[in-house]
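Design review, sub-item: ligand-bound model
Attendees: FS, YL, KQ
YL presented the inputs for the guanosine-5'-diphosphate complex:
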Amino acid sequence: FADLLGKSVSEIMTKLIALGVFATINQEIDFDAASMVASDYGIEIEKEEEKEEVEVGLEQAEDRPEDLKERPPVITVMGHVDHGKTSLLDAIRKTHVTAKEAGGITQHIGASEVEVRGKKIVFLDTPGHEAFTSMRARGASVTDIAILVVAADDGVMPQTIEALSHAKAANVPIIVAMNKIDKPGINPDRVRQELADHGLLVEEWGGETINVPVSAHTGEGLDSLLEMILLVAEMQELKANPNRLASGTVIEAKLDKGRGPVATILVQNGTLKVGDPIVAGSAYGRVRAMVSDKGKNIKKAGPSTAVEILGLSDAPEAGDLFNAVKEDKIARQIGEKRKAKFREENLHATAKVTLEDLFKQIQEGSVKDLNIIVKADVQGSVEAVRQSMVKLSNEEVKVKVIHGGVGTITESDILLASASNAIIIGFNVRPSSAVSSLAERENVDLRTYRIIYEAIADVEAAMKGMLEPEY
Ligand code: GDP
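KQ shared the predicted structure:
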């Protein structure tokens, strides 16, 4: 700072001491102190734009509308277990990838491309809303349309409803594939009714949701399903700019014994080329080779293309975002900085929900569900608490009792709470000291009460930010 002002260090130190700042020669001083000293010399200083250092080298200009081109839709298949998600994906791949294209071997890279009327559709190979939501939890959004598979003979089941909520939460349009219509005695209207009961109204009944009867076994309806996907995609006007450095999301990644780190990525904007320096999560490198879902080596991949890439320093994680950058140096710098940041963050146990912080977390939007585990000495108390707690739900938070049982609080309760970000409430039961210290290590909020009313009052107060602090 003294150098910049063209003054001696001791002179600047004297000035600082006059301001009450006792700085050593290599100590950082804050902006206010620096600007006061500078103003003594008639110099005005400006604050440097504070940028997330990690992102330097990643920023790119916004796409101009005229540079945007239509891109293929990316699809996730969801639904209840055994309703035919995997069979449907297989059937679509078999019937819509020509033998010539496939060259006999389809490569399982995590996504597959099919062509309908000269237009491409990309399917993510891992079905289910869990995969979909875990990606979302990492900040990635890859799915343009969700196919909700409902077996016509079984109807709407718990995971159908879950999938529905997950897709809705992500604001992704839903197409219902009513599967197994080859089975005798099925009643599609019953399924439509059940969907309506859960807030999904099909077109035939005046709603907006397209539903297509299909059979993964006979292939019936698959063509119309694909047509409908293209139709919905057209309405969405999916676009990207192929003429820029590529960016997108890691779909899956692994460490291959022979080939080293291998990642399947979905290019979402720009075009990725062999030789491009790239950073994916904290992994970095240069694209050494790209393999398509048909097992072909390719040189470049445009928007909505899934490719397996080689050349990364290590395996990134599914859901990590990737960027092609101008120079190797930039990729390395960003990757190394992110690694350091992750190491630092891993030192601290992940923050869990606590009654003390609940209100703040609700305000920040980081808590939408308040998960509770209830343990009590008698079943009657468990039920009484369960019912009262659920009633505390409001627009901002939903209170859910994810587990309730009779008996003392156990290590397994703590682990369940830790994994599900839940708090534990005990009535007339006490944890052993081993269990208490596990709760502490796992950052789990564990509270014991003798009177049910007090527990309810505490949770209610915490939700409103009016909980008396514990001393
Ligand atoms: P997933 O758990 O949703 O992936 O379901 P699967 O694809 O594994 O299918 C579950 C079962 O349903 C398997 O035994 C399939 O053979 C069967 N299945 C899937 N699709 C159809 C269909 O269209 N018709 C009939 N009859 N059975 C089907």
